[in-house]
């Protein structure tokens, strides 16, 4: 069964670049990728923060946060 | 044709975790992944640095550096 991978972003250029490089290129047999725009879907900020996300773009995979470069602080999206 | 993706690491726990989460899970139809241990293969430090890698673990894809969380500064490996 595919592992759930959530990609959090905020529409920033760094986010868009990471999305192209990773979110759309993970093996679909391994990952079931969900893409969440935290600027538009602020209701999901809490879950991202709870998983350890400090900035976007970031993935949460198996409950662990993986920050890819730096686009924006989560605090800036509240 | 698959895009070349180089994963630079230094054997650190953060590196190993990122390797499991990403380097081994990229779509093999999209990426041809090479894994480079910069602690053991110091001759490759220069190419990593030239591509913009500041710390490990990091990927270089299409000449762009993507740092995943933070394991160690490149300077600490010289």
Automatic annotation (TrEMBL), chains A, B:
Quote the Pfam families the UniProt record gives.
Thioredoxin_3
Reading the lineage from the top rank, the first entry is Bacteria
Report domain Thioredoxin-like fold positions: 10-66
Give the matching SUPFAM superfamilies.
Thioredoxin-like (SSF52833)
**Protein name per Swiss-Prot or TrEMBL:** Thioredoxin
- Which species does this protein come from? Methylosinus sporium
